[in-house]
Amino acid sequence: MIAIIDYGMGNLRSVQKGFEKVGHNAVVTRDPAEVKRAEKIVLPGVGAFEDAIAELNRLGLTNSILRAIDSGKPFLGICLGLQLLFERSYENGEHAGLGVLKGEVVRFDLPPEYSVPHMGWNQAIIRRRPPIFGGIDEGAYFYFVHSYYVVPEDDEVIAVEADYHKPFCAMVWRDNLFATQFHPEKSQADGLRILKNFAEL
Questions:
Q1: Which of 52, 60, 77, 156 lies at a 20 to 30 A Cα distance from 42?
Q2: What digits encode the pLDDT tens for the residues 50-61?
């Protein structure tokens, strides 16, 4: 079973439909026990970092997420679900994250000709090909919507970058942990390929 964690701030149905399109069922849940039983976990997210952490804590989901990752279950973070994995975010102040990965979440600081949020299709630059990128061509495009991006302390966790005035981390990968800044569920065939690969790990 694939569990999509519902903390009120994600494209839950879009992610669930993405898995359905590639032949895999996924349940949307905010039950920590159901997350614990799941074989694979997805942490989606759209919205503010501070509110998301508060809601995960309120619902008792934080420990379920940390235990799932520690246990070796395949785990996929999407957009805010990537950012939440880091130690801290500077979105509207400074806020502690889950601390799974060392590093921080910072706002784009760009010349005026670049709009923030960064929104639309951008090319993936594969640094280390993760298993869920099987069948994805070099230079594939994925869909982004974000004003903040992650800066890992350890460059070794960066699997994919994209360029918006300068390179930024578009995906991390460490062992069973995968997380993307882009939205696979909105990225057409290549995005669906990523969901399928993850479901079939």
A1: 156
A2: 999 999 999 999
